[in-house]
Every structure is written in C-alpha cells, then in structure tokens.
Amino acid sequence: MLKKASTKTMSEIRAIGIDALVKSLGVVATIRFLQYEDSGHGNYSYDRHNWLKEEKLDEVAEEIKKYRNKT
C-alpha cells in the first residue's frame, strides 16, 4: 500500500519527533538524548579526499573484500 508523501515542514516533523521521544522516554531522558546527539565537526568531504588521495578504486575495493571476508 502506497502512502501519500508528507507535506509537513521540517519544523513540524521535528516537533512530532520530539513529542514522540517525550512520550517514549520522558522529558529528562529526551533532553539527555538530544544533548548526546552530535552532528560532528570539521569537513568530512575535504578530509576524506585527503585520506583517499593516493588510493586507487581497485585498491579500495580489494580492502573492502578483505574486510568482508574477516567478518
């Protein structure tokens, strides 16, 4: 069954989400959860570009295969 796409604003979605957290966790735990959530810092795209500067696609793919075989 397909559902109609939401026309809610991001502000409305956030309010609904916080309300759901409060109902599920209570006020104190919701505050703790929101304080814990961190969007991070820095510029991931720039850092990733520098980390992978010397890597070739086939080398990265090979490393992924090795990692998958270990787990």
Structure in words:
By secondary structure, the chain is mostly helical. The protein has one domain (10-70). Helices cover 68% and strands 0% of the residues. The chain has 4 helices and no strands. Helix 1 (10-25) crosses helix 2.
Brief characterization of the structure:
The chain is mostly helical. The protein has 4 helices and no strands.
Annotation keywords:
71 residues; elongated
What layout of secondary structure does this protein have?
Layout: H1 10-25, H2 27-36, H3 44-51, H4 57-70
* Unreliable stretches: none
Number of strands: 0
- Main sheet makeup: none
Order of helices and strands: HHHH
Structural class: mainly alpha
Contiguous helical run count: 4
| Beta strand % | under 5%
**C-alpha Rg (nearest Å):** 20 Å
End-to-end Cα distance, whole Å, is: 36 Å
